[in-house]
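Q: I'm writing a short explainer about HNH endonuclease for a general audience and would like to include a description of its predicted shape. Could you first generate the structure from this sequence?
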Amino acid sequence: MTQNVDAAGDARSAPDVGAVVDDLADVTRRIIDLRASTDGLDRDDVSRLMRAVHALERAGQALALDLTRRASRTRPDRADASTSTSGWLSRQTGASRQEAGRDARLAEDLPDVAPQTHRDLADPDLSKEKAEVVAAAMRRVHGRLSPDERERVESDLLAKARRYDVVTLRRAAKRVLEAIDRESADREESATLEREERAARRRAAVWLRPPDGDGMVNGGFRLPELEAEMLRTALEARTAPRSPVVAGGAAGAVGAAGADGAAGADGAAGGTAGSVGASTSTSDRDARDYPQRLGAALCDLVRVFRDERQHGGTTATVVVTTDLETLRGEIERAGTTSAGSRVSAREVRRIACDARIIPAVLGSRGQVLDLGRSQRLFSAAQRTALALRDGGCAFPGCDRPSSWCEAHHRTPWSQGGSTDLEDGVLLCGHHHRVIHAGEWQVRLARDGLPEFLPPARIDPRRRPRRNDRWRPVTHPAAARSGTHRAA
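A: Of course. Here's the predicted structure. Afterward I'll give you a sentence or two in plain language.
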């Protein structure tokens, strides 16, 4: 160890950098050597190594930010004629000047605006991207809160950062004040969403190029999030496995998706779009990749403008969760769509009359949802309620939307199970088969949300798991339980 004296005159112990660099070089060589033998690894080895490499990557990111912050004080850029710390960092790492600048700002700000996040940044559940979200949120409220309030707010956001992916964390960060003042968080989030919605409507655009001479027209669009979700829902209703549309029903022929619904690399729609009332052969269905099936579905929508309800009656419907007070204008609380997008209170009130968007609080003509054993299949109203509760496939880690899912009876109907909401869970075709294989078990927890018990070979303690991918960050049941996390 050596003694360094910083600009303030403080003597601090420094590590033996030469030895550390040698150790890191040795680790790097071992990783490079391992790449040549990955084909011989079994699945347990792959899992162990993936966790280890992931932890190493996170620790490396944290150290790199600390070194960047130190570089802004020791100014190594002056030694190699760089114009700034971010310029030096770009030359050192190969990152763009823009990315290096973001890293330099984050390294400088994080210890001050989000000290807990800076302290724990090497945690495998965190990342530089998540730290940027936390830091930006804390910057917005830093001057408005006392030190104690800042600590509570950051602690709450840091817990969410460990639980959620980056996209969900960004939504949660819009409610950064929720830990100390729910009403203020409601107002601030709704106002932010309203500004974003106005800007998105101004920026919405469609562009179509001239015909290319081969019977095709290329183009694109930019849509607000809610309208894009409505379009995606309508298209997925026509491309979902086992959909009546895919099978060649009256809505038009669209190629069938495989169980995994893999998207092709080429985003262009190709092939024949199919015609209304036509059927598609198996070879045609198998030949189309996912973007081409979406293209065919879009052609059908252009041809047939009508409000259809396919695949259980819910896939062309967007559900927005809200409350009576918001609809009455008594409070400004944002709503949540069935895919997890947040919608301002003003927009919730505007769309309440849209037949294709159902405010969950209204109940859609008061249909009876609990049908007991009077019928075997779940009704359209029940599927809407299941889609609202589960979002998509409820199995931990699955990303299949509700339009690709089937309503599973937790207790088989043939064994006395009821066709009630409490007995239903949305599952994609693959995970429906997994559950019926018998190793995994599904149940409803006390908060009314589905959770899954893995087989003992995966977790000897069989601890319950949930899918947080579809769960709104302020879902009432989730807020009460506070225990679920994505697998």
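A: For your explainer, you could say: Residues 43-74 form the longest helix (32 residues).
Q: Perfect, that's easy to follow.
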